[in-house]
Amino acid sequence: MNGWILAATVLLATGGAAVLWGVASGPLPRRVVAQNLTTSVACPALLLLAQGYDRPAYVDLALLMALLGPVGTLVFARLLAADLAGERPAAWGMTWAAATLGAVVVVAVCVAAGPGRAMVKLLVTGVLLVGGNLVASRALSSGFEEVRGD
Hints:
Elements: H1 3-24, H2 28-53, H3 57-79, H4 81-84, H5 92-113, H6 117-140, H7 145-148
């Protein structure tokens, strides 16, 4: 086991525990935020595993997840707008922590991969991961009227 795989294991264990706790307990807003956190934990873990196992296909899966994860959160925010109207989820600390973690992992894997097409794919994945997480979190915390259905 190398350092990349160990880091992915720690990330999946701690992030997975936080997601499981958020989904299994608490009100609906906490569950929706935990659903958004799933993408923020799984994508960096896949990038670390791709580097640890030297499997570029894992980067493709992380790219797809970074693209579709926030879209799923926006769909939940739209469908559950009436249920979320009373108390809007506000987890900006967790959002910025997840965005920072994603950025740190992307930069570390980019440095290890070196310049080339792989680095471009990693940077696109990082932009989608961080940007999508921030947009989805803003939508959940009542930032967009179109999402709320007002």
